[in-house]
Each structure stands twice: as structure tokens, then as C-alpha cells.
Give the backbone structure.
Amino acid sequence: MPGAQRKNMIQFESKPPPLDSVHSCSKKVIPIRVLILRDYQSLSERAAHVVAETVRANPWAVLGLATGSTPLGLYRELVRMAQEGRVDFSRVTTFNLDEYYPIKKENPQSYYYYMRQNFWEPAGIAPGSYHIPNGDPADVAAECRRYERKIKDAGGIDLQILGIGVNGHIGFNEPAEKLQAETHLVQLSEDTIIANSRFFEKAEDVPRHALTMGMGTIMKARRILLLASGESKAEAIRDTVKGSVTTMVPASLLQLHPRVTVMVDREAAKYLLG
Ligand code: PGA
């Protein structure tokens, strides 16, 4: 279905969790809309309402998905809604942001495994409709090109969910002097390896590389929803919405996107208030 026909009407089905406050937090050309929620549960519920309404408005929506601990509450809510028959994911297409490299999809530490367990299967996404970079390809460059092409062939991403790293990364686009536009192989930063070591037995087990959508891939999404919870993200959120646009804080590039909502809990909003 062409993009124009897929225009999303975002309306809440039932009353979403109350907001603490709404901010327009940038002096830049396009202010980023920031919603501050009471806590992680409210954040997850509010985000789930946005995703569910996107899919209700357009059952063929193309969703961009994230992994990590932040979206777990969102996936839990969406799975609950799907199992209660309140939203139907059977016709959506999904693309994940990234995958470790090298890693086999059967590895419980892979993002493929995480997604299958936490969302794709319990939410009822049709096999063949979910996509994630192959973390164990014979040819990395060919895999990156294939993934980028798949996204284009699907008509682009309607709603992209993002987490954020403590260093301001989105996907695995790490702070650097130059960022790449399309899906590519990236070396993980020390900050990211340390942050992600909590999912592994020891830091040495964290893969040193990943395949990630590029900043251009992300910025082409028609709507972006960035989620952050906890004090450890407060500085990255401040730099994202109030700082200069810089490749050293990849999420700050979102200030250049016309339709971004940042949803945070009170802890992650610590440096936005006052
Ligand atoms: P987290 O990761 O949700 O586990 O904090 C987010 C990220 O690194 O993008």
C-alpha cells in the first residue's frame, strides 16, 4: 500500500496513562516533543497505546523495533493487548534496528532470540513478516545491502521505536566524528560493551561488533518514538533534546526529524525540568 494511503490517525482507544508534563524541549528548528510519565509502567503503557493505535489505523503498518531492557514493558503491554484481542499484529511488517555480530540467531543472547521470545511470537506477527539483520552472514556488506533494500521494498518504516544508550547512541550508531547513513557493520564502544555486559556472564562475552540500521535509515521513518527510563539516561536525554545537533550524540540528530516524540520517566527527565 503506498505511503500516502497509510497515513496514521493517532487516537487513543482508551484513556492513556496520565502525563506528568509535556515539553517542547528544543530551541532548534523543530522542537522535540517530550512526554514525561510518572514511572516505567506508565511509560510502557503510553508507548503501547501509540503503537496499538498506529496498527489499528493501518493494519499493514511497518514498525521499526528496538531491543534492550527499555522496550520490554512496551512489548509486555502489546502482547497482552494482542492476546486480549485488542490489537491485531498479523498483517504488520517489522524491522529491528540491529543485531550483534557475529552471533547465531539460536544464541539466547542474540536479538533475534530476544525478539522471538518477547514479541514476534507472543504478539502473533506472521512468520516472514519480521526482519532483523542476520548476525552471522557469509558476506557482511551484502547482508547490509539486503536489509536496506528490504526496508525500502516494504515502503519504509511508519513508526520507529528507539531506546537510547547512556552515550546517546540509537540503534548501534555510536558517537563518532562521522556517522553512516545506511545499514552497516559497527564496532561497539566501550560504554556500550560495559552497559550491555549485564546481559552476559562477563564483559568479555559481549560481541565487539554489530550490524545496525544507519542514521539515514532511522531518520527516514515517518514517525519516531524514543523511550528512556532511569537516571542513567538523564544526561543522554538532556543532550538529545536540549543540546547541539552533533554526531557525538547520535540521538541529537533527531532534532532534525519532523515527527519525534521522546517519552521518559521522571528519572530520565531529571535534567529537563527546572
Ligand atoms: P537499554 O538499551 O534499553 O537496555 O538501556 C538501550 C540502548 O542501548 O539503545
